[in-house]
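re the bet — no i am not wrong, look at it urself. input seq straight from the record:
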Amino acid sequence: RQSGFERAVNEPQSIQLDTARGAQYRYFLRGEVSDADSGEGLLLKYALHESSSGSKLLEDAIPFTEQSVFDATDQVSAKIQQALLDGFDDRPVLTDLPLDESFTGSVAAARHYVEALIASNIDNDIATAISLSEQAIEQDPQFAGMGTRMYLQGRNDQAIAMMDEALKYEFRLSRGSGFLLRMNRQAVEFNYPEAINIARKWTEVEPNNESAFKQLARLNEVSSQDLNEALRSLEQVREINPAANETLLQSANIELQRGNFAAAESFAEQYAGLFPDSVRAANVLAQAKAASGDLNGAFDAYQQASYLDSRSIEPQLGMVSMLMRRGDFADAEDRLESLASRNGLTGQQQLQVASSQVQLYGFVGQYSEVVATLDRYDEVAQQLMQPLLYAIQWNAPRIMMQAFYDTDYASHIASMDELRSTMQPPWNDFLYSYDLSVHSLAKDKEGYAVALDRAERFLANQSNASLDVIRYTSRAQGAVFSGDRELAMTNIQLALQSTEESLLNVLAAAETLGIRANMYDLLRRIGEPRAAIEGLLDVVSRFPGLAVAHLRLAQAYVDVGDFDAARSAAQTAGDIWRDADENYKFLEELREVDSAIASGA
């Protein structure tokens, strides 16, 4: 698409070769379907290539009709498998079940399923993809691959029912697919400990199956249950398959997640040594430098990454994120405007730029621009995002963020109620975590307590470190509101601990530092200003551009009577917020700090 092939078809082989090499794939498949020479049926021509040289390992042509498409696909599968295994002395044992047994026996269901994939992955048409998925299910109610799609549509009950139904027909699946289905069934209900147990059993049953160890690593990484086990699992993958170099970057991300920045850099450098033209490796290396506090080094690493591939915007966005961390918001905004105006951005790239713009406007207190940006890209978001993700990652945050500059809190809660009414359990209860932010801004203690009780229905039984962050921060704020100092202290400490090994450290490092700043402020509010100062100084050293952390630091310095230090911190916050919305919530607190400094001095 970035090269002008919008439908991702009929592209020259050079693009496919370049893509395969860039992704570090060892092989790629190329083919086309045309009318058969005889005039009856269709003809599939295909070739299997080795990526590093581009040489052909296999070339063939198979005639077929719509009715024989499964048989033709099975023939292609068998020939490719044979070609790939010829180079192995110790040939692995692979199960290759007929497609009509392992996938679906309905050609019509398969047609709708493939059309749904094209609609979502090529045409960015989620609504059509949902409709086609439903038609596939009507043709084959035991379609094993559809449960997860129902889940992403926010239809939790249907997803669980479909997975349970599919499990009755597990004999249709390969052994690995059966394990995957059982793992996903548990993950849908956030039962990660049980999903991990299933993955462990899979590694015992098939100790030479790299996919089993990859799944065990992934589950531990996402849930933060046991990051050491995740790393050991990836080591095992590399032992089984020495060419599985992509696991080095996954290991780097896990080390980032658990705060071992030197180890993260080491893994990224190992991968970069193997593939010096890898943008991904350069980006991960930059992330590691940023996490350790070396913001200038991270900026330089992102800049080096930008030289590797002019089509990739991730390095550019990485440089923007470092400028924001350093407090260079004007430069960051100019770069984002330049990126946003670039011709040929894909929808996904537009959303990436929009997310960075939302971050920037939030940091400088311009939440009216945050909401305007979300509105501007709303149509693209609806096209690209599954309904569940759109609701909880786009629409609900948009409603919540209005409360930072518009004090009509009741209307924001009403809008959240309206969104909640369209969602199934448990996600309707999850949305109360956004209500908590609105009630907190309004200092509505009673409303906060009610929303916390509803949010707990979702959060209480979740085994996930990222959700732990929400759980403990919410409980800590509730305890401060109720005046329970001991409960507040316990949950503040748990919240800070949960941020240390959360996946948020990789996915949302800046936001995680903001969460930590809020917890240190709660420490101040329960009478521990010196402990708050110590933690906040660490936050601003790693994120000098985080104005709210400077505000909290100023408040803590006022509490201990250090008005000179308070004035300096307040001035920094004020400089960053000089163009903030007139009604921006935290400006009121900043004015109160300035008054306290003037009185104390």
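see?? The chain has a mean pLDDT of 88. told u. also Residues 45 and 247 are 33 Å apart (CA to CA). so pay up
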